[in-house]
Amino acid sequence: MNPDFTLPPAARLPLLLLGLVVLVGGVLAGFARLGVIVPMMAVQAAGSHGALLAAIFFGVVIGLERAVALGSAFWYLAPLGSGAAGVLVLTGYSDAGAILSTAGATIFFAASVRALQKLPALFTVTLAAGALAAALGSFLWWHSGVAATAVPLWLAFLLLTIAGERLELTRLLPPRPAARKFFVGLLLALVIAVCWALAGETRPLSGVMLALAAWLLYYDIARHNAARNGLPRFVAISLLSGYVMLALGASIGLTGAFAPGHPWRDAALHSIFLGFVFAMVIGHAPLVFPAVMRVRIPYHPVFYLPLLLLQGSVVLRVAGSLRADGTLLRAGAEGSAAALAVLIVVLLARVAAGSRKVAL
């Protein structure tokens, strides 16, 4: 494979479609865990619901973004491996899926190390650390055969990836040495807390996540962009709402809710994996999708619709979990699925609108 050859946008589409398959399969597997009638394929993947969404789907999406940034065809093996792993899990071969997920995540880590070599900086160190957590998480899933054992590492993967990308943008603000030192301290604390969580004590990880939420709320450029108009404001509001959800999930986690079997585990996990992580997806979609697929996506206030649906549904789900109300919990899950479906429809509609403007 020629290392100087990169995939054209049209050739990246199958990888995005793989990611979409994994997303839909992961959501349906989540419904199966709630007792909703879904296709048998999703039922047999219910135990890998977290792996499908946290490790594999984001392995495809973030791996694709990283490959595009590096500009070499070899790095597309990372999202391809993750996407193929998702197909294996959904077709009943979860053990083989865990192996392939580990392979894809390992290539993704190598790509992140390459990015660090090209541009040594705190944010690229953070992104590489997140990629390492992804690889270690998939390896632990493969080794243990239980996806839930890798949750602390997959949390670290997504936290570090998002924080690293946001840290890059804080360079647009006047330098604050105290903020940098605080962030480095959080990185070190997160490593220790994840190790502690893998050993069975999750409260320190919750404390670090709460501190990270405070750092992001105070230092992120989103706080300044919220006063602007149009797309910058939408992105900022998406991010800020996600940071609030991160703080909510971390606060619930301080009760020990991240421990397997805790009655509030669903509330803690989905506040972060849905309310925080997918708010980042919604906020960055109008920026990342055009960069990856080389299409125009004109901004429109309709982008707020999936964001409102998502965060409203997460609130319902958290309330249902805290009150042990299955009806509310299921309504929240259905609302989150609807939010993701609406996001896809909105993106496609805005791509069509952008194409019409180019044609004119």
Q: Indicate the proportion of strand residues.
A: under 5%
- Report the count of strand segments: 0
Estimate the global geometry from the Cα principal axes: globular
Question: How would a crystallographer describe the biggest sheet?
Answer: none
**What is the structural class?**
mainly alpha
Enumerate how many helices there are, as a single number. 14
Quaternary structure state of the chains depicted:
single chain
**How far is the N terminus from the C terminus?**
39 Å
Unreliable stretches (pLDDT < 50, length at least 5) are: none
**Fraction of helical residues:** over 70%
Total tally of structural domains: 2
The helix-strand sequence is HHHHHHHHHHHHHH
Instruction: Evaluate the radius of gyration.
Output: 19 Å
The mean pLDDT is 92
Question: Can I get a quick summary?
Answer:
The protein has 360 residues and is mainly alpha-helical. It is 78% helix and 0% strand.
Looking at this protein, list some descriptive labels.
single chain, 360 residues, mainly alpha
Could you characterize the architecture of this molecule?
- The protein has 360 residues and is an all-alpha fold.
- It has 2 domains: 11-172; 189-353, no CATH class.
- Helices cover 78% and strands 0% of the residues.
- The chain is built from 14 helices and no strands.
- It has helices spanning 9-33, 40-44, 49-70, 77-90, 94-118, 122-144, 151-169, 177-198, 203-219, 222-225, 230-253, 265-293, 304-322, 326-359.
- Helix 1 (9-33) runs parallel beside helix 4 (77-90).
- The longest helix is centred in the last third of the chain and has 34 residues, at 326-359.
- The termini are far apart.
